[in-house]
Design a protein that fits this description.
The complex is a heterodimer of chains A (about 375) and B (about 450).
Chain A lengths: L1 E4 L2 E4 L6 H8 L25 E6 L12 E2 L9 E4 L4 H16 L15 H9 L16 E2 L4 E3 L9 H9 L5 E4 L6 E4 L12 H5 L5 E3 L12 E6 L8 E7 L2 E7 L13 H6 L7 E5 L21 H10 L19 H7 L7 H4 L3 H7 L1
Parallel strand pairs in A: 1-5
Antiparallel strand pairs in A: 1-2, 3-4, 3-5, 6-7, 7-10, 8-9, 11-12, 11-14, 12-13
Helix pairs in contact in A: 2-3
Chain B lengths: L18 H6 L4 H9 L2 H11 L11 H6 L10 E6 L8 H8 L1 H15 L3 E6 L4 H16 L15 E6 L9 H8 L23 E5 H13 L1 H5 L2 E2 L2 E2 L1 E8 L5 E6 L2 E2 H6 L13 E5 L7 E3 H5 L8 E2 L1 H4 L3 H4 L7 E6 L4 H15 L5 H18 L5 H14 L7 H25 L1 H4 L14
Parallel strand pairs in B: 1-2, 1-4, 2-3, 7-13
Antiparallel strand pairs in B: 5-6, 7-8, 9-12, 10-11, 10-13
The chains are: A alpha+beta (about 375), B alpha/beta (about 450).
The structure holds flavin mononucleotide (FMN), iron/sulfur cluster (2 copies) and FE2/S2 (inorganic) cluster.
Pfam families (chain B): Complex1_51K (PF01512), NADH_4Fe-4S (PF10589), SLBB_2 (PF22461)
Organism (chain B): Siphonobacter curvatus
Cofactor (chain B): FMN; [4Fe-4S] cluster
């Protein structure tokens, strides 16, 4: 089957979703995903971060789809044409989704364990706007211990349901789920029960934000000060394949290994996660290959970073001539010539990849 | 003119809620006719011919929905009746079930036979326990008379009918949330596709239809699809139950032939009898609280000056710019004592409360809009709040899993579209506007 995403065409197996196809092409055209999580069955479709425009349904029926569709659960048809970062409506909607997700999410990144690994941080950085229009009171919750190892900070939860699916699919007796409706909905355990089974710790790894925290690691460090290494052990309960997070010589955290999209490859047991914190417990394999999106990857916020086209266009759309706002006639300021400015901004519809250049370069060019 | 009565022909008869009286007045003849003289496909064919459209809100042709039902070998099929009816302003199904329960039971049998379902469910709004009991009694009577259970009328066809009280949430009326709830889970809508016709109850092919839709099928079987299609206008065939409420002289449930002029429905003595004495019509929500609100003048005339009719097409004429929707038939009339801002806030409170909270635009957006409306209504709004509401509504609309997001956005967007000056008045005259009973008297178009 052929599918074209942001003007790039590839062949995929029947049954592939738009998101999976886009991930095959690469991170430049892969839609953001907050609730979809490939290893978890039935995940996706909820956060609406991954909405894309289908401008042609298939070769047979080339009509565009009337609404934006969630790419994580929409299967491709032969000859489908999809617009992601090159579609105005998609980008505008994503701004809205970020705004909705942040409406009741405290920006406590400075004290949140997830800072630097947070999908919501990345999503807002790439697709959001700087200011919120929300003036109302935000909802608050008490922190809640879900057993000895996990603490729930419900204020940060974006109700992606990933932890619910995890508990449902990989732990035996599920005691936690969603209570109440709408923005009163909350993740909770049944009458404040503890989550006590050997695989409960995995809910921490799947949480895209810092709502579920590892009590053996809370406030111990910032992720960019740590060094991850791959390690394994002989574990009778799980694969024993983990990432150890070092600060100096000390193992301060153990997590499952994740792929490029931040998804766990093998779920690990609580003993490996919470109790094996000595180097002697492990056979070290070598440094973890750090995903591009992580803040600990070199120059995440530095030069030569890949910037999606929309960010450049956003910057361009907010660019103002100095004398638009004040009288500068006496200052003799030279403006960027308009033709040159135009050349930097590819119009919507042009290949996203061709259009990708960093803001850094743009600034330097100037 | 003698009015066609399909659902309400016998509702005035004393004792019609009992099997005996219902049977004496022609009840269960449709079951006999269908099971003894027609194949299931022939029943489906008649329903298709009738052109009847779903009466639960979306107005999807019922026969077409039935023909989409997948029929894999060895897999059960289900018919589920949506009797959740929680749309504010809509109360026709409730009235129909308590008044003439056997009409629904008979319709369920005929429809289940047509669809090849051997177990069917009536999912009743949880608050209506007394209706659940009425239906259970009716089912027991029908079963005792041999119209339900094993080997109905000696035909070899088996059908069990169950009544299930709902989860007590508006969202459980959305068909996929209803199925989740019926399966004993939290009433969260499912992502579509797959549609229930392919994977519905317990992942088996399922048809979900509204009480009123299913209740028409006995008449269609008895009189033929063509006879049904002869009533009404264009693609709006047959009759429709309207739950009329608000500032009307005679609110109530009416069975109208589709195509009746709106003017006549409101003002004629046969129907609502006009607006209460000394008052004039200001605005109407024509199809339950989720459909766009229309100012009186726009409700009575379409964009090109023709009389607007009570039909799917005519009510929607001109799209959302000048039209609205038939929806579930919840007709709420408001006279000049109604404050549109307060009304909009009130609707908004409902959708905020009822959002299931799965998808972020609806979960967060409905609460946000409600809070902004609350502020405006209570004299703390600012001018940019109006555009903010329009923009938030736009960001929700079309971007959610189920149509509740749209249902929350449309009333607000349409109220601002048609009554913007009223919102502005609230913001610029907070002291005046927040007085109890205060209503904007500016450019109001009364009829
Ligand atoms: C939030 C929401 C609530 C709904 N509530 C009801 C309801 O209470 N009763 C109903 O018949 N349909 C309701 N519907 C429509 C159903 O999803 C579905 O379209 C209908 O039951 C199909 O029956 P019909 O084709 O006979 O109209 C609701 C839809 C939404 C989105
Ligand atoms: S706690 Fe985390 S994983 Fe669970 S629903 Fe909330 S955001 Fe998602
Ligand atoms: S639109 Fe609202 S009610 Fe419907 S699934 Fe999304 S959150 Fe739930
Ligand atoms: S990732 Fe697709 S809707 Fe959440």
């Amino acid at each position: 089957m052929k599918v074209t995403i942001d003007n790039i065409t590839i062949e995929v197996e029947p049954g592939t979703t738009i998101l999976q196809a886009a991930r095959k092409i690469g991170p430049e055209v892969a839609p953001p995903a907050m609730c979809y999580y490939e290893p978890l069955k039935a995940s996706g479709g909820k956060c609406r971060a991954c909405l894309v425009k289908v401008t042609a349904g298939s070769e047979k029926d080339p009509r565009p789809m009337p609404k934006l569709v969630p790419s994580c659960i929409t299967q491709v048809q032969d000859g489908m044409i999809v617009e992601n970062t090159i579609n105005e409506q998609v980008l505008e909607t994503r701004k809205g989704i970020v705004e909705f997700l942040l409406l009741n999410h405290p920006l406590d990144c400075p004290i949140c364990d997830q800072a630097g690994e947070c999908h919501l941080q990345d999503f807002s950085f790439q697709h959001g706007v700087q200011q919120t229009r929300y003036e109302e009171e935000r909802r608050t919750f008490e922190k809640q211990d879900l057993g000895p190892n996990i603490q729930l900070h419900m204020t940060r939860c974006i109700l992606c349901y990933r932890c619910v699916f995890t508990a449902d699919q990989i732990t035996g007796k599920r005691v936690h789920g969603v209570l109440n409706r709408g923005d009163h909905a909350e993740i909770s355990t049944y009458i404040e029960k503890a989550i006590d089974n050997d695989f409960s710790g995995n809910v921490i790894d799947v949480c895209p934000v810092g709502a579920l925290t590892d009590k053996t690691y809370r406030f111990k460090n910032r992720v960019w000060f740590t060094k991850p290494v791959d390690a394994h052990c002989d574990c009778e309960k799980c694969s024993g394949k983990v990432t150890l997070w070092y600060r100096g010589d000390e193992v301060i955290r153990v997590t499952a290994r994740k792929n490029q999209w931040g998804e766990v490859l093998d779920f690990i047991c609580n003993t490996c996660r919470f109790e094996r914190k000595n180097t002697a417990d492990w056979t070290i394999e070598g440094p973890t290959k750090v995903a591009r999106h992580s803040v600990i990857s070199a120059n995440k916020y530095g030069a030569n970073k890949i910037v999606p086209e929309f960010a450049r266009r956003l910057a361009a759309s907010q660019y103002k001539d100095v004398h638009e706002e004040r009288d500068t006639s006496q200052l003799d300021i030279k403006q960027l010539p308009e033709e040159r400015f135009k050349a930097l901004i590819p119009p919507a519809g042009e290949s996203a990849v061709a259009g990708i250049r960093s803001i850094q370069n743009w600034a330097e060019d100037k | 003119m003698s009015l066609p009565k399909i659902l309400t022909a016998h509702t005035h008869l004393p004792g019609i809620e009992t099997f005996d009286v219902y049977r004496k007045n022609g009840g269960y003849t449709a079951v006999e006719k269908a099971i003894q003289t027609m194949t299931p496909d022939e029943v489906v064919e008649e329903v298709k011919k009738s052109g009847v459209r779903g009466r639960g809100g979306a107005g999807f042709p019922m026969g077409m929905k039935w023909s989409f039902l997948a029929k894999p070998e060895g897999v059960p099929r289900y018919l589920v009746c949506n009797a959740d009816e929680s749309e504010p302003g809509t109360f026709k199904d409730h009235w129909l079930m308590k008044t003439i329960p056997h009409l629904l039971i008979e319709g369920m049998i005929v429809s289940s036979y047509a669809l090849g379902a051997n177990a069917s469910y009536i999912y009743v709004r949880g608050e209506l326990m007394y209706v659940v009991r009425i239906l259970e009694k009716a089912i027991a009577e029908a079963k005792a008379a041999g119209f339900l259970g094993k080997n109905i009328l000696g035909s070899g066809y088996d059908l069990e009918l169950y009544v299930q009280p709902g989860g007590g949430a508006y969202i459980c009326g959305e068909e996929t949330a209803l199925l989740e709830s019926l399966e004993g889970k939290r009433g969260n809508p499912r992502n579509k596709p797959p549609f229930p016709a392919v994977k519905g109850l317990y992942q088996c092919p399922t048809v979900v239809n509204n009480v009123e839709s299913i209740s028409t099928t006995s008449w269609i079987v008895n009189n033929g699809g063509d006879a049904y299609a002869a009533i009404g206008i264009g693609r709006s065939t047959g009759t429709k139950l309207i739950s009329a409420s608000g500032h009307l002289k005679k609110p109530g449930v009416y069975e109208i032939p589709l195509g009746l002029p709106v003017q006549e429905f409101i003002y004629s003595d046969e129907w609502c009898g006009g607006i209460r004495d000394g008052h004039h019509l200001k605005a109407v929500v024509a199809g339950g609280s989720s459909v766009p609100i229309l100012p009186a003048a726009m409700l009575l005339k379409t964009a090109n000056g023709e009389d607007r009719l009570m039909s799917y097409e005519s009510l929607a004429d001109g799209g959302f710019a000048t039209g609205t929707m038939m929806g579930s038939g919840g007709f709420i009339a408001m006279d000049e004592t109604t404050c549109i801002v307060r009304n909009t806030w009130n609707f908004s409170r409902f959708y905020h409360h009822e959002s299931c909270g799965q998808c972020s635009p609806c979960r967060e957006g409905t609460g946000w809009m409600e809070k902004v409306l609350h502020r405006i209504e209570h004299g703390h709004g600012s001018m940019h709040d109006i555009d903010l509401l329009v923009d938030v509504a736009k960001k929700i609309e079309g971007n959610t899993i189920c149509p509740l997001g749209d249902a929350a956005a449309w009333p607000i967007a349409s109220a601002i579209r048609h009554f913007r000056d009223e919102f502005e008045w609230h913001i610029t005259n907070p002291q005046e506007a927040t007085r109890p009973g205060a209503v904007f008297k500016g450019h109001m178009e009364l009829v």
